[in-house]
Structure formats: structure tokens, C-alpha cells
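Predict structure. Input: SGNH/GDSL hydrolase family protein, 197 residues.
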Amino acid sequence: MHPYQCFVAIGDSVTEGIGDPVEGFAQQGAHDTLALRLKTLNPELKYVNLARRGLLTREIRQTQLPAAQALKPDLVSIIAGANDLLMRRWNPDQFETDFAAMLGAFPTRTERLTMTLPNFSIPLGMPATMKARFERQWVQANDIIRRLARRHDALLLNVGANMDFHHADVWSADRVHPNARGYAQTAQAMAELLNLP
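Output follows.
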């Protein structure tokens, strides 16, 4: 394994690292935590987190992808889709087009890291009719993410299928963002995917 030289993250508020503090855990997002771990292997690592809260997948593609490409990363994290689902603007064809464009925008030598979406209906406690609609869309979104991750040989953190990521202890009070514990857990899972020591 060669230490990474440039790590770039694009996405929404989860990649940005928005969430509640938890005693005993650093108040930072998963990507910031992962970057610190990568810097122990390469102190010269360049790390840029371009993520901004509230963005739909097409907005991430439009506003963050060009800057990410210009940085020529050898590790890029691309996580998107939560706002598409939660803001009721779900368009699976548009999501697949935009997500595929982001995963495919980097040369094959660039390691891609992505993630399925958690089932927000669990922490949010949605009413039955809303839960049923959301979960249909959630399953569809994660099927798209998994398929595109395979196509582009991306490392996939399968949060959507892991109940450890749905436990109340890892969520902020808003039940939409991980808390500091949840981000630490996510960073550890990412590090394991990358086979970091």
C-alpha cells in the first residue's frame, strides 16, 4: 500500500460533518477523522473537503465535481442522495445519471470511496404511509449506488445494510445527521475498507 497524496471529499452535510457532540469523541466528521489517520502514513497528504449541507446530487455534481477533478486526487469520497430522498425530490433516473457521472469522472488510478444511505425512517420514526414511500425510494437509491459502485470499482461502505449505523446512539438529536460517535464509527469503517494499519 502506498500512502495517498491527495484526498478529496464531495457531498452534502454528512460529508461536511454536521452533527452533535458526544463526550469522549472528537467533534469532527468522518472524513476529517479519516484524513488525520491518512496523515499518519503521509504527513504531506493534501486533504480538501468540498462538501456543503443541503445539496441535491445534481448540485453536488455541478458545484463540487469540477474543483475535485482539478485537484487530481488519488483518493476521492463521493457520497450523495440523502437530500434527494428527504426533500421529496426523488428522481431515480436523474440520481443515477449524476451519481454515475461523479464516479466516472476520475481516472482509474484514483481510488473511489462511496456509501449507501442509511434508512432515515428508523431514527426519524416516520408515520406508516410516509415510511412506506420513503423505504421504496431508499431501496431504489441504494440499489443504484451498489450497481454503480461495482461498475466503477469503487469501495462501498454498505451503511444501508448495517444495523450498527441505525442505532440511536450514533444519531444527532435531529435524527438526520450522525453524532460524533457515529462519525467516528463511519471513519473506522472507511479505514477498514482502505486496509489502513
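The domain at 6-193 is CATH 3.40.50.1110 (Rossmann fold).
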